[in-house]
Amino acid sequence: MTRLVLHNVSARYEGALALEPASLEAEAGRVVALVGPNGAGKSTLLRLAGGLLMPETGSVALDGQPLATLSDRARARRIAYLAADQAVAWSLQVERLVALGRAPFLQPLRRLSERDTDAITQAMRTADIAHLADRRVDTLSSGERARAQLARVLATRADVVLLDEPIAALDPRHQLRVMDIVRAIAKQGALVIMAIHALDLAVRYADEIVVMADGHIRASGPAGTSLSPDLLAEVFGICIDGGLQPNSARLID
Amino acid sequence: MKALHLMLLLGLAILAFGFNLLVGRDGSLLAALMQVARGETSLGTQILVELRLPRSLLGALVGAGLGTSGAALQGFFRNPLADPGIVGVTASSGLGAVVALYFGLTSLSLLMVPIAATLGGLVGVSALLLLAGPRASSTTLILSGVAVSAVASAGTALLMNLSPNPWALAEIAYWLMGSLADASWNEVRFATPLILVGLLILVLVRNDLDPLSLGEETARSLGVNLPRLRLAIVLGSALAVGGGVAVAGAIGFIGLVVPHVLRPFVASRPTALVLPSALAGAALLNLADLGTRLLSGPGIPLYLGVLTALLGAPFFVWLVRRQQGRAL
């Protein structure tokens, strides 16, 4: 069973400490939400978890094996990552973009295998972009592009899925759809860690909420308990009448 | 790119090679080709075998090197304005070659010019990477290229300034204009291994260019080894361009135009652009060389680098304007 352990990791950007030593453990089937104001260190923690940033101190291990000892490709097959910056340089076709999720599995001079094409087709269907397969990414709306990038992540079929604000560009309906997808891949056995600003959705969909501020993990625990009114006031500078309630919107077919 | 398109491009490259081999201002060398086939020798067969054949072979090789490194640089910098000439690789290779010529390193070995040109190219691409960084905007990329070119051109100008006699000066000046007119089997021997190794390196790492279109961080998350890719791009383009500059001088804009024309046929995939750009570069350079031979007056040669610049520069202007339109 997949298990990701970050032990006392810290990170520096251009000399300044972006993340104080922090620890986090998560296992397959769970959805972990990272919440906190901008600049709290959520993206840094995700990059560390994905092996994209070398920790200044501490270590990251996947199933007991340090990430640093995995090859780039081996790591990429097990950990998929959706960056907050979803720009695409060329006018690629949507299907080609999604197919990039299979890049860690590609052998030189070989075509996509049946397993690859299956994963691509299914990922596009799941992310609700099958009808956009032949479109060019630069003609998509930002919401469509965000879903195409999500499909690219799904196509990898990784054990660990790291999402940096996957719903920031989406309308309410597609926010719900993406959160449903997140729940579904966790149910299929993936471990999902996502940075998210929508607290009501985090409370509704995540198993665990990690509250971050100023490069620290301030609190973590089950969704119902970690976001107390005191913490909301201290970390976000907001208060919510009647306390934070889970989002209750529903999709109409 | 579909197999049919690749075959068409291959056909075009062979056709351009054949034209440059056989067609001239004084008619074709078809008769000489027949004589060669029959094992006879004449003035025609000598021209064909000793002049035109190495010239056309070099045309194909140098063109392939320029087209491929153009495609690879554009994919790596995620920018359609990247081209060996514009980003300063050509000028740095030129400086390397001029240093070898000026200090008489050719007396050590004739190989010194291609080697020095390749080293110059290496320094040029490395400087560009340091100046522009891989996340460079078009503006930063072009300005960094201008800076690299300026330093290299200043070095070249200094050596021309200090050159001991007008003949050496003229030799450097003509050589800088770019030409295949002096191509012989010697040049083929020197340039071929360098350009082929450069091409091979670029072709081998091309699969990393598609993931890179999603940005460096995402590319790494998809298993791309960025430091290795960076090294391969630097080495590959320095070899593929440097080898060509050493024997043919500065020939610009092939690496800019070729990937741009082919891009619609590969659905904009930078990976799929690399191989076709080699074939199209080979075809375009041989056609351009044929053009210079047909347009040259008696005793007044038109230089290849001059022709490609005359045709390529307006295209560059158009591309820059279109880029601006997109950014707005």
Record the SSE blueprint.
The complex is a heterodimer of chains A (253) and B (328).
Chain A lengths: L2 E11 L2 E12 L3 E5 L6 H8 L7 E6 L2 E2 L5 H7 E4 L11 H6 L14 H13 L15 H14 L4 E5 L7 H16 L3 E5 L3 H7 L2 E6 L2 E7 L6 H8 L17
Parallel strand pairs in A: 3-8, 3-9, 6-7, 7-8
Antiparallel strand pairs in A: 1-2, 1-4, 4-5, 9-10
Helix pairs in contact in A: 4-5
Chain B lengths: L2 H20 E2 L2 E2 L1 H9 L4 H35 L11 H14 L9 H21 L5 H24 L4 H11 L8 H20 L4 H4 L3 H6 L4 H23 L5 H9 L7 H26 L8 H24 L1
Antiparallel strand pairs in B: 1-2
Count of DSSP helices of chain A?
A: 8
Q: Separation of termini of chain B?
A: 31 Å
What is the number of beta strands of chain A? 10
Determine the mean pLDDT of chain A. Answer: 93
Order of helices and strands of chain A: EEEHEEHEHHHEHEHEEH
CATH architecture of chain B: Orthogonal Bundle
Share of β-strand residues of chain A: 15-25%
Class per helix and strand makeup of chain B? mainly alpha
SS field, number of helical segments of chain B: 14
Q: Which band does the percent of strand residues of chain B land in?
A: under 5%
Mean pLDDT of chain B: 89
Helix share, percent of chain A: 25-40%
Question: pLDDT below 50 for ≥5 consecutive residues: which ranges of chain A?
Answer: none
